[in-house]
Amino acid sequence: MARFSAWVKKHLGSKPTAQRHPEYQLPFLPTPRRSVTLTSFDAPTCLFFQLPYDIRELILLMVLGGCTLHMDIVRQKEGWQWRGAVCHRNQCRVPSMRYAWAGPWSDPCLRYAYGRNGEFLEEHNPGIMGFLLSCRQAYAEGIHILYSANCINIESQPLLIHLPQLVPTDRLGSITSLEVVVTAHRIEQDNGRPSFSLNHLKPILENIKTHCHHLHSFCLSFLVASCGCEILDGPTLPLVDAFYHSMQLRNMRVELPSVTYWKVCDYRSVDHHPREAPANTWRERSPWRSLDGGEPRVQDRSIERYPYPPLKLPLREDEDESVESVGYWLLEGDSGPMHPMVTCS
Ligand SMILES: [Zn+2]
């Protein structure tokens, strides 16, 4: 028996114990971690895998792709629990719809999917576990499509902060479209008025920058339970600017709390590009944080290319007019704390 225990210890290693992470006891991946996803297969295991890979990929994209998928971990009485669900927030609306698309800050899916008694609603079930677990090749090909052909939505702050310790890095490397909700931490002050901190934004963005190499679409949504403009007063937007510069994104949207959004709109300049069709109503335009020059500027720009960047405003007559602007779209998000209702007696 002692020899068997020694063999298990040598070949399988010891599992991480709760004592290693007493502060969170999150189910961290072991380090170092041996990848168990095979990349080559000697012989097709069933008829489906005898099809050329291009055909298989098309089928898998049609079956497994094209959705937004929630991925979260939450603290329960008995410990941490992984949660996942198909997002029904926008139904048939797509991210290219500037004013009809509902942002991640208002997403009710996980609350509804798991209900009050923890029962999972079947309509939120991706229905793919059977295929993924059918054989190793199905898992290897399906799991890549799952992460790369869907938009991944993460709201759990522990998951965002510890992303590479909880999700294998090759899965993070497959993600192409990502929505994250960053919730400001409430800090009680001696004077009785709370302050709100976004100090955890930097490690969250650092995790995404380091591990999501194929990301091309990103939506960042802030939740701040305050009526103030903390995001404008602190280093938050410069951090987001630096993140944008460090990535090769095709489109990026940032949802600001409502009060902050309208404060930003006060300083926007209404700009028109010579190649854009006239956009006179507010529904045809949107605030755009331009990082083209030295200082970031908020421009009110036509959304004809949305969610992709508008064209860069030419500074000189001989400047190329077909170059895209550098920056990201600003959207109105979290409406902040609800004011208490006043009833007439
Ligand atoms: Zn959802």
Compact description:
This protein is of the alpha/beta class. The chain is 28% helix and 19% strand. The protein has a ten-stranded mixed β-sheet with strand order 2-1-3-4-7-8-12-10-11-9. Strands 5-6 form a two-stranded antiparallel sheet.
**Mean of all residue-level pLDDT scores:** 86
Binned, the helix content reads 25-40%
The structural domain count equals 1
DSSP summary, beta strand count? 12
- Helix count, per DSSP? 12
Low-confidence stretches: 14-19
Distance between the termini: 78 Å
The coarse silhouette is globular
* Strand arrangement across the biggest beta sheet: 2-1-3-4-7-8-12-10-11-9
List the main descriptive attributes of the protein structure presented here.
ten-stranded mixed β-sheet; two-stranded antiparallel sheet; globular; binds zinc ion
Give me the secondary-structure topology:
Elements lengths: L1 H11 L40 H12 L3 E9 L2 E8 L22 H6 L14 H4 L3 H13 L2 E4 L2 H5 L1 H4 L2 H6 L2 E7 L1 E3 L7 E3 L3 H11 L5 E7 L6 H4 L2 H11 L4 E6 L1 H9 L2 E2 L14 E6 L6 E6 L24 E6 L13
Parallel strand pairs: 1-3, 3-4, 4-7, 7-8, 8-12, 9-11
Antiparallel strand pairs: 1-2, 5-6, 10-11, 10-12
Helix pairs in contact: 2-5, 9-11
The structure holds zinc ion.
The site of zinc ion has 5 residues, from loops.
Explain what the structure shows.
With 345 residues, the chain is α/β, with parallel strands linked by helices. The chain has one domain. 28% of the residues lie in helices and 19% in strands. The protein has twelve helices and twelve strands. It has helices spanning 2-12, 53-64, 109-114, 129-132, 136-148, 157-161, 163-166, 169-174, 201-211, 230-233, 236-246, 258-266; strands spanning 68-76, 79-86, 151-154, 177-183, 185-187, 195-197, 217-223, 251-256, 269-270, 285-290, 297-302, 327-332. Strands 2-1-3-4-7-8-12-10-11-9 form a ten-stranded mixed beta sheet. Strands 5-6 form a two-stranded antiparallel ribbon. A hairpin with a 6-residue loop joins strand 10 (285-290) and strand 11. The longest helix has 13 residues, at 136-148. The chain starts with a helix and ends in a 13-residue tail after the last strand. Mean pLDDT is 86; it is low at 14-19. Zinc ion is lined by residues 70, 87, 89, 107, 109. Residues 70, 87, 89, 107, 109 line the site of zinc ion.
